[in-house]
Automatic annotation (TrEMBL):
Gene3D superfamilies in alphabetical order: NAD(P)-binding Rossmann-like Domain
GO molecular function, one term: oxidoreductase activity
Family: Belongs to the short-chain dehydrogenases/reductases (SDR) family.
Keyword Oxidoreductase: yes
Name assigned to this protein: Uncharacterized protein
Keywords carried by this UniProt record: Oxidoreductase
Source species, domain of life: Eukaryota
Any single Pfam family the record assigns to this protein: adh_short
Lineage: Eukaryota, Fungi, Dikarya, Basidiomycota, Agaricomycotina
InterPro entries registered for this protein in UniProt: NAD(P)-bd_dom_sf, SDR_fam
Amino acid sequence: MVSRSMRPSKLTWAHLPFSLFGPSLLSSSNLPIYLPIPSPKIIINGSISAYSPRPNHFPYTMSKHAIAGLTKCLPLDGRQHDIACSQLDIGNAQTAISRPGGMLQPNGPIMVEAKYYDVEYADQAVVYMASLPLCVNVLNQTLMAMTTPFVGRG
């Protein structure tokens, strides 16, 4: 039996349809729109959670694994039309949903993590990915605060 503390919150489950189906449906339904555009680029919001999850966040991590798969499938399916796809994995950006009070760690305690960075840096990463010449693509990029416990987590 799974203890109550190990169960994801209802809010965590509630975002799953948006995180999982939103990008999939938008990408596939918009492919015809991209066809007349010379070498279009699709940039998808991933997460470092797909590579190193947080405790009790498996619905979110599942959705981000799906996004990683979508990032690999879209350029494959769109290759004949020169459609590129990139994934930007963002960690610890300062947003309205940031949790400055700390996050549950794999070894049990709640810890205040690395200093959050301005979300403007994520904007700059998207601009960089989109501005590359049409003959190249950044498949995956991870953006995180320098001391984020992603490296070595899990």
